[in-house]
């Protein structure tokens, strides 16, 4: 999923004068019973600057522990949205970094 493209489409369609419909190519990854897309995400504590951008996604797997983000692996389905918003690249797929 491309988060920037999704945001662009939502802004365009909600500002249209006429009714419009946005059709997603697949069901929401947060729906109950959906299998994991890929490996869960982990936080590289050295890279995390506690900006909170990842928390704004509303993902139930992401929380704050002290002054760093934390991802609860059992709740993370690996959708990758948080990877797209983290400017410091502190979020990484499990096994892809210093997490």
Structure overview:
The protein has 99 residues and is of the alpha+beta class. It has one domain (3-93): Alpha-Beta Plaits. It contains two helices and four strands; from the N terminus they run αβββαβ. It has helices spanning 3-14, 81-85; strands at residues 41-43, 62-65, 68-71, 91-93. It is globular and about 50 Å long. It starts with a helix and ends in a 6-residue tail after the last strand. The mean pLDDT is 85.
Instruction: Identify the CATH class.
Output: Alpha Beta
Task: Give the N-terminus to C-terminus distance in angstroms.
Answer: 23 Å
Mean pLDDT figure: 85
Beta strand count? 4
Task: Pick out the low-confidence regions.
Answer: none
Helix content: 10-25%
- Tell me the Rg in angstroms: 15 Å
Structural class: alpha+beta
% residues in beta strands: 5-15%
**Name given to the CATH architecture:** 2-Layer Sandwich
Spatial ordering of strands, largest sheet: 1-4
What is the CATH topology classification name? Alpha-Beta Plaits
